[in-house]
Write a structure and sequence with these properties.
Layout (H helix, E strand, L loop, with lengths): L1 E6 L2 E6 L10 H12 L5 E6 L3 E3 L4 H4 L5 H17 L3 E6 L2 E3 L1 H8 L2 E4 L4 E3 L13 H8 L2 H10 L3 E2 H7 L4 E2 L3 H9 L3 H12 L4 H28 L1
Parallel strand pairs: 2-3, 3-5, 4-6, 5-7, 6-8, 7-10
Antiparallel strand pairs: 1-2, 8-9
Helix pairs in contact: 1-3, 3-4, 4-5, 5-6, 9-10
């Protein structure tokens, strides 16, 4: 199941199936999409309950589906919802992230690990691979050589190697503190920064959009200063 809690400027979203290492079923993917899109919080903190972040797809369930491709598409939609959400998504990884769990983390805006975090794409060992957008996002986050080594070998990366390869941006004892720190920023600025950095259009179009967004923020800032002086 997916639990949500709104805590000041941060929505906390917890994958809560610790007995199954937080493996995801179709209904969990649907609930996760809703959790990250149906919020006005400027920052969302995504984490797992218990000793794992997320083991990916619940293969005991997937193996009995009539059309596993539909489940793959549901996972892709959920990862896209995380990437495209209005809220900034900070993923806190404590313990194991495997398969689809790695792919959900890849979709987040920021991946923050604890020293206990580990990462792997083990599907190759039994004839599967990450199909929730992982083959698209992984080489954007890591260098292509590191991405291929990680995906083809199925080997486990510890937190330090994940940091070295760019899979995570920080290793800290308390990832939630990073979400709180980001949430202290001005919400409109957070939104614009995410949109601009996530923009995949060609450079000239991105730069025009960047200039327009900056001008809008400056006007808002100037209006706020003027209003403050009138008080």
């Amino acid at each position: 199941m997916i639990r949500t809690r709104d805590d000041d400027a941060v929505r906390v979203v917890t994958i809560d199936r610790p007995a199954h290492r937080n493996a995801l079923r179709p209904e969990d993917l649907t609930a996760l999409r809703t959790a990250v899109t149906d919020t006005d919080a400027p920052v969302t903190y995504l984490c797992g309950a218990g000793e794992a972040f997320c083991a990916g797809a619940d293969l005991d369930v997937v193996a009995n589906l009539d059309d596993p491709a539909l489940f793959a598409r549901a996972g892709q939609r959920t990862a896209a919802a995380i990437a495209d959400a209005e809220t900034v998504v900070v993923c806190g990884i404590d313990g194991a992230a495997r398969g689809g769990g790695v792919e959900l983390a890849l979709a987040a805006d920021l991946r923050v690990a604890t020293p206990a975090a580990t990462f792997a794409e083990p599907g190759v060992e039994f004839g599967l691979f990450g199909a929730w957008g992982g083959t698209v996002r992984l080489p954007r986050v890591m260098r292509e050589g590191d991405a291929l080594d990680f995906a083809l070998s199925g080997r486990v990366l510890d937190a330090d190697e994940a940091l070295r390869t760019g899979l995570v941006s920080r290793v800290v004892d308390d990832p939630r503190s990073v979400a709180d720190a980001i949430a202290s920023g001005e919400p409109d600025a957070l939104h614009v920064i995410k949109r601009r950095i996530r923009d995949r259009r060609e450079d000239e179009t991105q730069e025009r959009a960047e200039a327009t967004a900056f001008a809008d923020l400056v006007r808002t800032y100037a209006d706020d200063i003027a209003a403050e002086r009138r008080r």
